[in-house]
Specification:
seven-stranded mixed beta sheet, 16% strand, Rossmann fold, TIM Barrel, 17 helices, globular, 460 residues, alpha/beta, 2 domains
Amino acid sequence: MAIRVMLINAINPYAEIEYRYPPLGLGYLVSSLRGFFSRDTFQFKIVNQHIESEVSEFRPDIVGITSVTQNYSMANHYAAFIKKKGIPVLMGGIHISMLPSSLTLHMDVGVIGEGERTTIEIFELFIEKGKFSPEELSKIKGIVYRDAAGQLQINPEREPVIPLDQLPFPARDLFTIEKHSYLFSSRGCPYRCTFCASSRFWGRIRFFSADYVMQEIIELVDRYRVKLISFYDDLVIADVGRLKNLLALLKKEKILPKVKFSLNARANLLTEEVVRLLKDMNVVSVGMGLESGNERILHYLKGKNASVDDNKAAIRRLKKHHIAANASFVIGSPDESKEEILDTFRFIQTSGLNFVDTYVLTPFPGTPIWEVAKGKGAVAEDMKWERLNVNYGNNPNPVILSNTLGKKEIDRLFAKFQRQRLYIAAKNSFRHPFFWDMCRLSIRKIFDKFKQPRDPFISN
């Protein structure tokens, strides 16, 4: 009989932004397990809501949970419920990787960092022994667990997968794939922004080959009829040579008329040559973390190789080639003044950007900003993790790092940026490549407020 494996994506399933795209990280785990073991070894189910009923109906033999920081309290509730039923619980994702000490008594094993090979070894042990003994767990790299005395043990880190082409495509057959979908063509980032946990999770940047990416695009286009593909890499344009090779393959396979692309990029790398290449590749939208319209704050957040002039030039080049320019910004750095925050507001106002998101600086574990917050006593390893909800407007008790402004002033400034965001969206939405996505997402957000029944683990 196949081993029943339930994988839980710990999100708020009533917040559209959290369920917008399928969790490909879990898809990679499934495809890696399928590839290593025989196809009929496991029966998989991936869920993100109604956990009580799903567990009762599916009756899993083992459960894996993945979670970002803001949902970690929810993930722990899930783990406690499942553990009471005598089912082993594995914990993975960026939060446990950045803060292994947050493994709770309800979790048997925490997977640290890249999980495919580690998970295979964990399942080898489970198939052989039917349980997880500390003695056997001590032999597996890249995990955190408790020894016989109940003390946390963090094993040596696992070597990264090199080359990435060894990994099979994620198991998209377990998801609903819509006309706008996404893929990863690399892991990691050569830059280290002070607030970014993703680059620290993946380590040094690694790339899937152009041919591998091409074959995954063909699968999305031919099998799933995808019309718009977003590259969800931290920095897909970091290797321009690979991008040129991919463009050549797209042309050779005559894929370009069938699909459009969007991606994220760093402004200082968006040279005229690169933007022309993106245009030839049928890229219709580029997102950038521009972060600030004030040079001093920009350097604090992104380092000295970022500049306001580079941000302006990147927008100008994208607009010149009729590629939608989208950007995110961060306000509320520790010593950022109100006037410096308004520099960002004025930058956005005159930028010509097609779409904008503004966030309040949030200290995630594993980042320099987390250490700043710890020094202020603003965060701790046993805090309420929902306080680190990056969606500031939905966070009733956010962590404020500003030394110059109180919460009320930050609230007023954030509201000002939100009005600006809505104005820009309203002005540009009809011409934006994501117009139909925006319509669909807006409808979903309306229905989110009326969805029933609500999961008992989700707090309102």
